[in-house]
Specification:
Elements: E1 8-11, H1 17-28, E2 32-37, H2 41-53, E3 57-62, H3 68-82, E4 87-90, H4 107-128, E5 137-141, H5 155-176, E6 181-187, H6 202-207, H7 217-228, E7 239-242
Parallel strand pairs: 1-2, 1-4, 2-3, 4-5, 5-6, 6-7
The structure holds NADP nicotinamide-adenine-dinucleotide phosphate.
Length: about 250
């Protein structure tokens, strides 16, 4: 038996990139996986088909994490369709380049960033905590930028990811007595649409990594798999860097 057999997982932003790798990995571990997406319907449906054809269970749900009611409704749908909830992975996120002295960047940009990266997560965990029980897992996908920003223009993004790490520490206390763990995984540069490893900027980024290369999404998903597993039962309130030594 796989170590997540008969568990139900809910992953936000599962159609592409790190989220898709997490969906695939948790399904391979034996979990029934619901996942959200916004615009990449074709990719979401193709991923679900691949998992179902391999004998797994996948449920794509269109839900904007920037809409707190939509994300709560998506979790309710997953619980009803898959029969419960054991693991939530808060992966959906967006990044903006927004130097504080750029007059053209409005606070609307900052508000939308916080709505998706922070408030959407707070809404998701409020709903999920109604259903998670002993052995439950809350896993936030933060960023190495929460600890060290490294480049100009990413303060707003970094602040949202620092908030996720702080939330995980607080929620670990709120939910610990129910046997639920809450942790944040902080990826470093990972080859996705958000941060392709062949961009003009990638050479500069790689020079700042001890390993000198980007992660593949599967390398982030492998750590999510461990934190979701029974082997990680005493890990809670932790911030786990998976950053190739960017912050070493
Ligand atoms: N890539 C990196 O270098 C890196 C490093 C550190 C942390 N991270 C974090 O890792 C997470 C995943 O990043 P990624 O690189 O895989 O990004 P990505 O390639 O841009 O993929 C983003 C995923 O999130 C979904 N999404 C975007 N906005 C959403 C919203 N409002 N509501 C629901 N889903 C939404 C997208 O859905 P659609 O396909 O439908 O648009 C897609 O599935 C993010 O939280 C990011 O901040 C990434």
């Amino acid at each position: 038996m796989s170590n997540l057999a008969n568990k139900v997982a809910f992953v936000t932003g599962g159609s592409r990139g790190i989220g898709a790798a997490i969906v695939k990995r948790l399904a391979a571990d034996g979990a029934h996986v619901a996942f959200t997406y916004v615009s990449a319907t074709d990719k979401a449906l193709a991923l679900a088909t691949t998992i179902e054809e391999a004998g797994g269970t996948a449920l794509p749900i269109q839900a904007d994490s920037g809409d707190a009611a939509a994300i709560a409704a998506a979790i309710e749908t997953a619980v009803q369709r898959l029969g419960g909830l054991d693991i939530i992975v808060n992966n959906a996120g967006v990044s903006v380049f927004s130097p504080v002295d750029h007059a053209e960047d409005t606070l609307d940009v900052v508000a939308r960033l916080h709505a998706i990266n922070v408030t959407g997560v707070a809404a998701a965990v409020r709903t999920a905590s109604k259903y998670l029980g002993d052995g439950g897992r809350v896993i936030n996908i933060g960023s190495s930028f929460a600890d060290r920003v490294a480049f100009a223009g990413f303060a707003d993004y970094a602040a949202t990811k620092a908030a996720l790490a702080a939330y995980a520490r607080g929620w670990a206390w709120d939910l610990g007595k129910k046997g639920i763990t809450v942790n944040t995984i902080q990826p470093g540069p990972t080859d996705t649409d958000m941060n392709p490893d062949n961009s003009d900027f990638a050479t500069t980024i790689k020079a700042g990594l001890a390993l000198g290369r980007y992660a593949s999404p599967d390398e982030i998903a492998a750590v999510v798999s461990f934190v979701a597993s029974p082997d990680a039962s005493f890990v809670t309130g932790a911030t786990i860097n998976v950053d190739g030594g960017q912050n070493a």
